[in-house]
Every structure is written in C-alpha cells, then in structure tokens.
Amino acid sequence: MKKIIKNGTIVTASDTYQAEILIEDGKITQIGANLPALGAEVVDAKGCLVFPGGIDPHTHLDMPFGGTVTKDDFESGTIAAAFGGTTTVIDFCLTNKGEPLKNAIQIWHDKSREKAVIDYGFHLMISEINENVLNELPQVINEEGITSFKVFMAYKNVFQADDETLFRTLVSAKEHGALVMVHAENGDVIDYLTKKALEEGKTEPIYHALTRPTALEGEATGRAAKLTGLANSQLYVVHVSCADAVERITEARSEGFDVWGETCPQYLVLDQSYLEKPNFEGAKYVWSPPLREKWNQEVLWNALKSGQLQTLGSDQCSFDFKGQKDLGRDDFTKIPNGGPIIEDRLSILFSEGVKKGRISLNQFVDLTSTRAAKLFGLFPKKGTISIGADADLVIFDPNSERVISAETHHMAVDYNAFEGLKVTGEPVSVLVRGDYVVRDKQFVGKPGSGQYLKRAKYNTNSPLTKDQTLSIN
Ligand code: URP
Ligand code: ZN
Ligand code: ZN
C-alpha cells in the first residue's frame, strides 16, 4: 500500500526542510514537492516534525536479573517503545558460561519472534573467552548479523568478566568487525564496598549509590579505553552517568582511540537524592551506575552537545515496585537494578534538550536514531529519511504537552521513574516499514510484525564510524 506524508517538516541528523515523502512497499521511494500521490493514502503531518524512527541501542526485555525477570517483554516493551517514537531496539542477549553462544541467541529469538511490534536486533554478552567462544564469534557476526558484544566490568559473580576476557574480546572484535560495549564500573571494589556497608547495617537504597562512587565508573571507563587503544580496537561505553567517565572518554578520543559513549535520560534528569525518598520509594531509582549528584547533569548535556557522547539509550530494564523492587527491602544489594524508560526516551530528550536549547533539533535526531544506526550496522536502511530507506517514521507534535505518569504509560510496570515530569513534544503516529504501529496516539500494530535485523559489520575506516557530530549544529 502506498502512503504519502504531506505538510510535515522533515528532520534528519543534518537537515530540516519541508517536503513530502512517498512510501511504497515499506520503503521511502520519493522525497520532494508535489509528488505523484495517485492511489496513495495521505498521512497529514500538518504542524508536525517528521523524524526517522528512533533506534534504542540499549534495552533489556524479558531478561532474568536479580532473582527475577524484567516486567516488560518484547510485546509490552516494543509497544511502549513505539508509542514513544522508537521503531528499532537492540536488546542484550545474555549468555551462560560453558554453553554455546548459539543456544543463547536461540533463546532470544524465541522470546522476541512472535511478540515484537517493531524491528529488533541483538547485542551478545561475552562473559568468558575460550577456544569455543572464539570459534563461534565469526559465525555470530556473519550468520546471525550480531555485530556488537557486551562485556560487563561489574556485577561480580553474576555477569562480571575479567580484564583478559575484555581484552581478548576487543582483539577478536577488531579482527572480525564488531563493536565492543562495556558496562564500565569496577565490580571488585563495589563488591567490597557493598559487603562492608551491609556489615555496618547500612541497608537502605541510598547505599546503592554510596557504594558505587563515580571514581569507580571513571576508573573502569579509563581502563576499558586503554585496553581498546592497546588492542587497536573499538569501544562503546553504555550508560555513562558522570563527569569522571565523560573525562576518560574525552581523553581517549583525543588520543585518537575509537571510543564512543552513550548516556540515558535518567542521568540527564534525575539525581542521587531520589534514592533517599522515604518508604523504600528510593528503590524505584536504583540503576547501575547509580544516579549521581546533580552537577554531573550539566557535564552530560555538554558532552551530548559537543559530541563527546554520541547516543541516548534507554537502558530499559523494568521491575515492578511491588513484588520485584521490594526483594531488596532489607538489603539494597537485592533490589533489582534498572528502570522503565523505553517509552519516554525521545520525549524527554526533546523537551529537556531541544526545547530548553541544550541541543539542536538535528542533534536530537542524531542522538536518538542516526548515530546508533551508523555504529550498529543499520544505516542507511534505518536511522535516516532518504530514498531507499525503510519507512520507519515518527510524526511528532513539537508543541503537545503532557505529564509522564504510570497511569497513562504503556509499559507493563507499576510505576514510572519520571512520574509528574511535564514534557513538551510527543509522537502522534509512528510507522514501521510503512505500516502504522501507532496511529493518532492509538496502538494499531500487531505482535510478531517486528522483523529481526541482521546488522552490518563495524568498520573503523567507514565514514559512518568517523566523528561528524562536531560539525552538526
Ligand atoms: O541498572 C541497570 N542498568 N540495569 C540494567 C542492566 C545494566 O547494567 O545495564
Ligand atoms: Zn549495565
Ligand atoms: Zn543495560
């Protein structure tokens, strides 16, 4: 079915202009004025901006963690994502030591296949390196199209990998064309500090933050960056929360290392004081890395503006307050880490970033979509509005106002970490490969309609992985 989008203002990472978009067979086939619209359904975008669909490079859907499983699965999670203007997620596939990687990937396909309403890919967690893993990695890249690996430097005795594993993953990724992602916190020292806090009877949520100081994120970020330089490889630091980590990334980039950084809405808007809310409410704000002292927010915003951080992920990892977060009522180390954000990633960045003059409209598109497409092997099929691209499009009303609330959100979880935050700007309609998933703020998609994305390899020499943000304004 043909569609034509009329009367909107197209915004990409580099341009803002008025034009019509013709969609045929799920692809953008023409962009211009007075396009031939015979037989095409008209999508009226009057008064709206038209963005490429958001790409969320960091989600945990249907993931076992902290003695429970995230509340949002690939159905509720991707429905909520679509309402928020995200048309692609890249989710973290967990692996088990001693088991073939292909088994883990199969489990993630089974979780997602009949549920996703938007397109999706996987990053693969690497927790050990041995001959079996090394032999499987080329297959993972070439056959599964999984071209990014995740190494956790924290969560001791759970997900944490040692430095040898990180280094050898970096070497292998360089050889075969993948991007290595790290959760950068010093898990060994955190383990010591948390045990000590518990011994001293410090059990409340705030101790989650106090036992994970910024120095430990900075140290791990710097270590990962140095190992990347030594391996002459490539690194993407997920969920950067503080100035210490931004400094290490900036330093590495100025030395010419291929290092990228992502932050998340929670670190831009919320702060450590939220963990002190009474009646255990602080547990709603337990993320790792933790929320930081407020002054770090300005550093993060500046890093987004200057291009030292290049993407905004949600780190969607939702747990109910009742029945899940309260596993840690008497011991903060048992509070499942993470929160529900997949739905409001674009609205928060638009409202707090573009509307408040902290970033430009084109940077907004780069941060929420284009850059992730380039780094994770999806560009130009995804992440931009151009002829031949998938018609993943967001019709966005820049003036609509709403208050974020669990009462109205579409995630399955029983609270919203941004409850009460007033935001300006929200998606009205969202299309994935030319089909409406959200139409006039109503869900019209179908579970199982989302397609698995095999992604292209990471190529250090490609213009897609060169730094262009600084020239965008
Ligand atoms: O607290 C967080 N970030 N939970 C999700 C898992 C992770 O570390 O990304
Ligand atoms: Zn993490
Ligand atoms: Zn995460």
From TrEMBL:
Its cofactor is Zn(2+). Belongs to the metallo-dependent hydrolases superfamily. Hydantoinase/dihydropyrimidinase family. InterPro entries: Amidohydro-rel (IPR006680), Hydantoinase/dihydroPyrase (IPR011778), Metal-dep_hydrolase_composite (IPR011059), Metal_Hydrolase (IPR032466), Metallo-dep_Hydrolases_sf (IPR050378). PANTHER family: COLLAPSIN RESPONSE MEDIATOR PROTEIN, HYDRANTOINASE/DIHYDROPYRIMIDINASE FAMILY MEMBER. The keyword Acyltransferase does not apply. The keyword Iron does not apply. GO terms for molecular function: dihydropyrimidinase activity. It comes from the Bacteria. Residues 49-436 form the Amidohydrolase-related domain. Its EC number is 3.5.2.2. This is Dihydropyrimidinase. Keywords: Hydrolase, Metal-binding. Pfam families: Amidohydro_1 (PF01979).
